[in-house]
Amino acid sequence: MRFGKVIGHVVLSTRCSSLEGGRWLVVSPMMKEQIAAPDGPDLSDEPSAVVYDELGGRVGDVIGFTEGGEATWPFDKPKPVDAYNALIVDRVNI
Q1: Which pTM does this prediction carry?
Q2: Fewest CB within 10 A of the end CB: N or C in the chain?
């Protein structure tokens, strides 16, 4: 699992019927230094990811997301996702 800050969302004209009820977020992955100082810069040097979200993440939220094969584990039936929003971070204590 990686942490990232939501920097936008994706609007689709059509989508797969198995993905109804969710949406797509643009997420900038956070490095250790950014997690320790959440008021720092929003964008990291890492490429942004597009993450499937059913939890209601908003722009500015810090989320935990999984990628690859693990992103399909929360679903009973396979869904064509490569990254999944697993949690929304409420606060970080370091």
Answers
A1: 0.83
A2: C
